[in-house]
Amino acid sequence: MNKTLLIALVVISGCLNVAWAAGLSTVTIQSHHQAQTVTAEGTVEAIKSSLIAPQVAGSITVLSVKAGDYVKAGQLLARIDMRIADQQVISNQARVTAANAQLNAARQEFERKRRLYEKQYISQAALERAESDYKAAEAQTKVQLAQTGAANVQTGLHTINAPYAGLVAEVNVEQGDMAMPGKPLLVIYDPKALRVVVNVPQSQLVQIKQDTSIQVSIPAAIETERGLTGTQVTVLPTTDAVSNMVKVRVTLPPGLASVRPGMFARAALPVAVSDAPPQIIVPTSSVVKRSELTAVYVVNSKGQPQLRQIRLGRKQGDNIEVFSGLQAGEKIALDPISAANFK
Fold first, then answer.
1. Residue numbers in the chain where pLDDT is lower than 70
2. What CATH number should be reported for the domain whose range is 3-34+276-340?
3. Beta-carbon contacts of residue 282 (< 8 Å; ≥ 6 apart)
């Protein structure tokens, strides 16, 4: 038995019984139910990811991070030129001071006019004018205070801090560049909270069990993190009109060291038990294909191989599904060349 045949025997040993018939290697066909999972492909993404963009325009005077940096919540990321904003604050504060002075003068004048009116030294119209001036000065002071508060908020927008602890994924600007409202400066995400998003045909969606664990495979991760168990499954309530696919989110365990957003991933989604008949599979190497003939060598009770035509289904790794031509319990030759030359 050559090396290739040995490998084939190891691969199929889990579902087929290998034996020997008069020096001819054979395998006993067994039927089994179809796999109760749906394999879907997708990518890893961060649960918490932010595209940081400024709300004000200006030159970037400070850029304190680069791609790959880990930042704490509230840490300074960038600062935009604040000179104009600072001057606006100073100007508004001066207006508030002037408005308060006018308010004090209007209040004193109103109090003086009210005392004179009580002694009937002035008319009621004069009192009402003084009261109107006082209320106008009071309203103007409130306007100036509101403008000063808005200017202070505007000044704060020139400083951009990290909204949460995370990893800087991208930095799209350099120090000295012009920042514009809505133009992204950088991307930050939380590496401790990741998920896999896969696309599932809507026809299979109703069969998926959402209350069971999900096995996820990430080939690019380190060996200990290539096979993971999802902790939560979320099926999005929309379907893509073009592909008829539904996005399914599988939350990954926290604290993964080598998994990053954008990595390729597969998820084995458990489905309800299928009512389909059991499958019959054979090693691909045992199948003979000659012109339009597809067959295997079936070994009878006397140990003699006989060529029998079969109809094949889907390939499953090193095995292939047989739709018709074989029954469970029959034996077939693993090596069709040896079977053809068997005497």
1. 1-23, 32-36, 209-211, 272-277, 317, 343
2. 2.40.420.20
3. 16, 27, 29, 296, 310, 319, 320, 322, 326, 332
Other beta carbons less than 10 A from residue 254's beta carbon: 11
pLDDT at 157: 87
Q: What angle do CA 250, 254, 257 make, to 5 degrees?
A: 110
Phi and psi (nearest 5°) for 211?
Answer: -105, 20
Residue extents of the structural domains in the chain:
3-34+276-340, 38-47+190-270, 49-77+161-189, 83-156
The answer to whether the predicted template modeling score (pTM) of the entire model surpasses 0.85 is no
Closest CA to 100 of 130, 137, 148: 137
CATH for 49-77+161-189 is 2.40.50.100
What pLDDT sits at residue 61?
Answer: 93
Contacts by 275-278, CB closer than 8 A, 24 or more apart:
276/33, 276/34, 278/31, 278/32, 278/33, 278/34, 278/328
Cα separation, 308 vs 337, in Å, equals: 14
pLDDT of 107 reads 92
Which of these, 263, 319, 298, lies nearest to 21 by C-alpha position?
298
DSSP state of 201: E
Q: Which homologous superfamily is 38-47+190-270 in?
A: Efflux pump adaptor protein, beta barrel domain (2.40.30.170)
pLDDT at 16: 47
Q: Is 117 strand, coil or helix?
A: helix
Right CATH number for 83-156 from 1.20.120, 2.30.30, 1.10.287, 3.30.70?
1.10.287
3-state secondary structure of 135: helix
Give the span between the Cα atoms of 225 and 208, in whole angstroms.
24
Characterise 71 by phi-psi region: left (phi > 0), alpha (psi -120 to 50), beta (else). beta
